[in-house]
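Lab notebook, bench 4. Still working through the backlog of constructs that have no structural model yet. Next entry is a single chain of 393 residues. Request: give me the structure tokens for it.
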Amino acid sequence: MTLKNLVSRSLFLVSLLPFMVLANGTDDNTEAPAASRQYTFSWNFVDDSELAPRGGTTKGPAVTLDTDPAESWQRLHEAGISKKERDRRAILAMAGGYRTSFDFLETVGYTAGYQPSKPYQSWGTEYVYVVEDEPDFVSLQHIIVMYFIGQEGEVQGPAVVKHWRQDWQYEDQDLHVYAGHQRFRKVELTAEEVAGTWSQSVYQVDDSPRYQAYGRWEHTPSFSSWLSSNTMRPLPRREFSVRDDYHVLEGTNRHTITPSGWVQEENNLKLVLTEDGEPDPVQPYLAREQGMARYERIIDHDFSAGDEYWATTGPFWADVRQQWNEVFDQHESFHVPKKVDDQSLFMVMFQYAGGIGEDTPYNAKASKTFVRETLSKWVEQSESAKAKQAAAY
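Model written out:
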């Protein structure tokens, strides 16, 4: 399959992400029946609401779990290394190939007559690549590589999607935090506040910013865990695709490294904002949500299509990252609209990346020009920043 066809599948798959549940994924080649779909913290006394998890019924072939402790786990527990180096190795332990599962459930409601939203579940396979590995900085890129079982039982795929990216910076004093309504603002922290901490910066599939937070790693013989500071995040696709009654998720996320993979836990409040980005004075919070993303290490899964995609398009995405770094350096606050000229940024970026291949290899000059001109359309400096800049002249 050509890279162009892979990208076509990718664009289609991105459009389906909020609706997909892959019911299979066991390591014994048996399909999990629909009745076995499980979710916890169920609402035992809600009789008039259908609370089966929302999602699709797409199935994928079985995978084989790696039950042996990973080499990265052994390196993480090496004796005699510094706390900072152990932190860094915990971050690097998130790299590799995984079966992923995502579960989100509203556990508490704060409105009169509250009715819980349907839980959300999805499943996939993805590889986490190490993009950069420096003493004070680690960058990890997630790429989905999925296969599907067709109506006749045949395996289809792969479908490849560039997924989210996470960057980790040691003792990071400059954060661009999410401020609601597609706005980001710079926050400066003191050296005392960030001593011994790592910031995590999370980026969308098109490398636009999503959120930043900082926290400390804790290490025990059983696990290593990082807990973020409280932060605001834009609605994920699983939410903005089905509802518009609130604006941000406010809460924490915890990353925990285990011998067989890692887990991300989210503790979220669903927050309503006023037009100026302040919590609504009448009804700020609608509900609390618990989220669980499990990354279970797998073996014998063919991730080669992801390798090919990343090797081919990686230089282009490096240009995208560099241009966003310039945006962060130049703007204390900015706004990123969801669409420009009725187009989403991720579609524009994915289409350009999909055009890179043997017939049209990466062209550094053309790529950098495209990225610069594209982001100039999507990055809007806030009015307050514009006024401050004008006053400087």
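Notes after review: Residues 3-307 form one domain. The two ends are 55 Å apart (CA to CA). Flag for follow-up if needed.
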